[in-house]
Amino acid sequence: MPTFSPLKNDTFLRALLRQPTEYTPVWLMRQAGRYLPEYRATRARAGSFLGLAKNPELATEVTLQPLDRYPLDAAILFSDILTVPDAMGLGLSFAEGEGPRFARPLRDEQAVLALREPDLSSLQYVFDAVTQIRTALDGRVPLIGFSGSPWTLACYMVEGGGSDDFRTVKAMLYSRPDLMHHILKTNAAAVAAYLNAQVDAGAQALMIFDTWGGALADGAYQRFSLDYMRAAIRQTKRERDGVPVPLIVFTKGGGLWLEEIAGCGADAVGLDWTVNLGKARERVGQQVALQGNLDPTILFAGPQQIRDEVRAVLQSYGQPGAASGHVFNLGHGISQFTPPEAVTTLVDAVHEFSRALPKQL
Amino acid sequence: MPTFSPLKNDTFLRALLRQPTEYTPVWLMRQAGRYLPEYRATRARAGSFLGLAKNPELATEVTLQPLDRYPLDAAILFSDILTVPDAMGLGLSFAEGEGPRFARPLRDEQAVLALREPDLSSLQYVFDAVTQIRTALDGRVPLIGFSGSPWTLACYMVEGGGSDDFRTVKAMLYSRPDLMHHILKTNAAAVAAYLNAQVDAGAQALMIFDTWGGALADGAYQRFSLDYMRAAIRQTKRERDGVPVPLIVFTKGGGLWLEEIAGCGADAVGLDWTVNLGKARERVGQQVALQGNLDPTILFAGPQQIRDEVRAVLQSYGQPGAASGHVFNLGHGISQFTPPEAVTTLVDAVHEFSRALPKQL
Question: Is B219 near chain A, with CB under 8 Å?
């Protein structure tokens, strides 16, 4: 396994482990992305989104871009959750201006039963990117590796792309639960292997994005999303060279299931903006750290409104020990239309206000 | 005010008022719609969606179509929530195969401050449809009138149509809350006047659709959606000729705010499929009836799966008094791709299984 420079800023990792911190660490989902002109320039050089994601040099470049602009407390691997089903042979492409497409979606029993875990060597470009990014970071901040959740991957694998109502994948779930469980079991093993290889390559924290768990009905969520995240987490390495590698799960729209999510084995739970952080903390106690949860559209308002809303989120997290166990983030990925200067206001406000909050001793 | 035949089946109204019923009443959001071939035939004769919605004879015809197929326990006015902003002069149109569009969205201070409540005479076609439908129903089942919520109407009025992220309307909310409150205050008064005129015309129950309340952050939801529903409800007639006219509110994605929604003055709260009905009942006690909450995609599965999931929803509502205070519905509008025979299975299963549940004495 590669070795790296010592970490200079471990605030993010400490918060995930519910250890005291001097201030509330902050990073943003999709922080390396289209809202940054320097990202768009690299993306243009790469020729395509997949060309960018599959090139470790360029992926390293865009991963570091937001850190050069903003004093963020973590970096996240630039990649896409659909690399895993692509490596399973489903044939991923991104048409310009549209979402992802799979050439060979899982639409019948034969296709489902032929599904196999990916050969990790076909994902070597991801692990190479992790190692290059971690090296380039030179210990500035921790690097987050990630994966889609088994259910969220299954949504794309069965629908063949995005969906408004997930009617194809849910019809399979209700009509042929045996096939859905087969996909999810395969995905859970693939997710664990994929995350473990990222840890080996240098990832210092992990996140599972369950973007579409909130589309499921109560009951179905537990059986078809949460249970398979739990299974993946159980098989995932949680330390490297004796250093803990904390893991975050995020089910968008999953606020009602918070207590159950908090018990799935993760160190931290991501929350969207519909959840009150103080109430969330009451519901889960000290079982997990919480990550979130500013509405990303606030970044379209002026600096004073951004500062007011950042303060409100920090205060809602509650006291005492306000800065401990909270990682500031948006409740969803940053919009491509966000003015970059709004992020400066946001990051500075998180650091400034959280330093003034009472600390846990 | 017009007079009508006596009601033969008041099960739906009794459930909304938390009175004992012999079985759990059922209706479906968008039950008169594109999944029915007879609807598509009438829609083709009308020439356009708005041509259909603005023609009381044709609106009556499509409102009754699902009742002729299925033993539903309520009818709902065939109309669109955007009739109100259309009557405010925003210029509504529906391009074929696309969503609604406003020619004159509220994009600046001048447009917002010029906004006025609609002249109700420009909505006479809606009230004529209510009277004609109630007459045609001849007391078979109660007729539901409805409106969009002040916030949900504002979303379309500011965005100018549908949206993935509501960034224009939310940017106004955060940047210029004064303008947003002006729109919402105007909308709340318009919603109340619109619902009252529907009651005068013959509506026997009312529903407020807060389709996009769940897009708001905690805190913003209470101030910008719930408070204005409460204001509208306060001004809404709740009886006609001494007979109660129960009112349902439905915030899709609002499960986390259930206790607060239950206190807004409505008789019943609609729930989407992410909410467990039994837990919801524990949270609100006997304060309100609950409506919901089957995932509409279950209708793409086979008859046995539909029956199993209907039974699960009924059982989740809990005991004792299982059939009292529960109106069965989907957690969202029925999909246009639903096979009509799946609805037969659903409606029959609700009636059959709920008759076998323990009754409140």
Answer: yes
